[in-house]
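Supplementary Note 3. Input sequence used for the single-chain structure prediction.
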Amino acid sequence: MNETDRARLVTERRAPRGVPSVPSARSATARFPPLAWVIVLSVIWPLLVAGVISALKEWTPSGDEAVILTRVHDLVSLDTPLAGAYSTRGWSHPGPIMFWLVALPSWLGSRPSLSLAWMAALNAVFVAALAWFAWRRGGLVLLVLVLTLTALLVNGLRGETLIWIWNPYVALLPYLVFTLAIWSVACRDPVALPVAVLFGSIVVQLHVAYVPLVAAAIVLTIVGTRWRSRPLGLRDRARSLFRPARWSRPVRWSVAIAVVLWSPVAVDLLVGDRNLVRVVQYFATGRDRSTIGVASGLGILSRELGPSAPWTGGDEQVELGSVTPGHLWVLIGAVALIGASTFWSYRRLRADQVLLGLLALAEVLVAGWAASRLEQPLLDYLVVWMLPLAMFVWLAILWPLAETAAAAFRSRFAGARSGRSARAVTVAIPGLVTLALFLQNPSSWTNPPLPRDYYQPAVAASVQQLTATLPKDRPLRVEFAGDEFFEAGPGIVHGLLDAGYVVSTSDGAPASKWGRSRAWQGQPVGDVLTVVVALPFAETDLIARCDASGLAQRASSYEPLTTSERDELMRLGSERYVNAGALDESSASRLAELQNRDRRVVVFRGGQPCQDR
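The predicted structure, written as discrete structure tokens, is reproduced below.
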């Protein structure tokens, strides 16, 4: 028996009733066994399948993915990114970790689809990290529970999300790793401290939505580590579990990790564009859109926390492009269940489970405040950070119940044969859940839709036509018109840069989105290209307006619908507009198919943009 176990036994014998005891350190010191790797593989294999299949496909980046892959090539240049992925609000997310996470496949190969396979592999690593912390904190029972809930979450996110190199999606599983790591720190596991610093920095730099969640977890951990020794009245024994010597090396590693990851942000604050100051100013005083308010924010959080919500595969409820709130009883019920589970753990003298419940409760309260500060229109990707939070909440609710049930089962069936049978069934649960969910929707993994694949043909055709006619010895200026979600335009810019052209643009805040070397600020150029996107049923046909302006000529054109198909699209759209129920099922399906294909993209070439943004 080691010193930690002796201190635990003394504490459990002398602690008064109603006071949580120091939990066992057995699982925190046990090695990750081969059996645990088998359970992990039973959960992550759909991810690996989706990654391999996506790597074999041809993919043309557009939208934010095109910008991210462009900035990856600047990492080892004088224009290295000091801030994160660009936001449409005029600032970038806090740090450049997004570009470093996807740098390796971009440096090793010319196929952009390799980045998608790399993202699937990274998410598999994050699942393994979750399993590792679960084993350290709660052994086999917590490992099985965490991976079963992870299987539900992975199914809810689906393959197309988990291969997407987009910062709102990349941060999902790292946030869960951070929560388990910071919980382990509160449970006085020194090994977890560097991991908590690493993944806390990652999720904050990836997306600003995680700042309040990470901050709340850190504050609660600091308070929790002080709380755990005081009620026991066992300061000497508490110090034996919290010896400075055990923490000196993890603290040094944590400081080194923080310095490395946050040094670009510090440089930006000192000599750069001070992006972090812009972020703070925007959320403090500079919002240009109204927030949804407390009632709607809590309603949306309530919908996302439910057991049949999108985190387990349920459909997101959207009206007119915005996520709709649900009934508050789900949120109230979740908070009540967390409270009951935490109180039950307190009565059972389990400080680790009490801390887990308190951490989940703090995250929900902070998430409610953050949800009330969301802005309209509330697109679904703006609430995606609630999905891993929902899994963490249910983990805090179910972990004490699962451990109690496992203990009762062991005491009831104490025989060697029944014990082996129960262990085999328990180990198989995550794999069986993963297989059942996979069979519900196998195409999500065996044929995952590629990111923004609806613009891939337009971008690929436009770049091919442009590179066949444009000379490479003249710098280009590229601007966008009608591209409301900035998808086709960035894809064409990335394609031209990848082909060796010198390109500048005024898209985004100066030097923030595309970097200083590509920011157009009045410098002379050879040609000005205007990427014009015509959306279905738009009030103004921007392509026709550019044709009539005489300011530029067509340099490339992608119009996928024939004249008869376009007439059919307009007729069906008019019928639906006049009477929402006028179309039968086949006509409505035909209308949706034509709308999805109607991605008209024309690039005009002239001495100035042919159309304002």
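The chain has 26 helices and seven strands. The first helix runs from residue 3 to 14.
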